[in-house]
Amino acid sequence: MTPEDIFQNLEERAAADTAVLAVLRRSLAYEPGLYPPAFPYVEPLTHGQGEWRRRATYLAAACWAKGQRAQQDEPKVSGIDLASALRKLLEKPKQGQAIESLSKSLTKRFTALLDSDPDELPWRLRQITFELSAADIAIAWPSLLKDLWYWNRSDRFVQVNWARQFWAPSQRAIKEEEVSSAPS
């Protein structure tokens, strides 16, 4: 089953039964894949997957459920990749908070996430996704799940890609540089 199919299934089940979101949210208090009430919702979606992919699917499903707004008529799975979402959060500072302190704090948490081993990843990812949810920045959940499936690769290409996206110059900075370097 593809990540898109997984989240489509979860979305359909959550639209039909609000208990799905409640159970998946509650599963965040447990290690991914170890909360029995979540088994009926996620286990059928993990058939044939190895243990790491199974755990990653539970983690992504739980974070997705937590990120759904109670006032929405139905859950949505569209959004942007995690690193781009964090960049967007940097550009949207909280009221009364200096952009420098937000930048330092978010950069520190993102760096810790990139350096996470499989045991630390659930806790660090929860923090980041909660913050994005609170800022109303939607994550592309299927994209996140694909990345989580490959988190443990020795070449760390997911972490490298996220770092490149997060620390790449913004489009605004590139345009400003082009304007300043253009001949007069």
Write the layout of secondary structure elements.
Elements: H1 3-16, H2 19-26, H3 39-42, H4 51-67, H5 82-90, H6 99-114, H7 121-134, H8 141-149, H9 157-167, H10 171-181
Q: Runs with pLDDT <50, length 5+?
A: none
What is the arithmetic mean of pLDDT? 87
The best one-word shape is globular
- Helices and strands, in order, run as HHHHHHHHHH
Largest sheet: none
Helix content: 55-70%
Q: How many angstroms separate the termini?
A: 56 Å
Task: Please tell me about this protein's structure.
With 184 residues, the chain is mainly α. It has one domain (3-169): Orthogonal Bundle (Peroxidase, domain 1), CATH 1.10.520. The protein has helices spanning 3-16, 19-26, 39-42, 51-67, 82-90, 99-114, 121-134, 141-149, 157-167, 171-181. The model has no long low-confidence stretch (mean pLDDT 87).
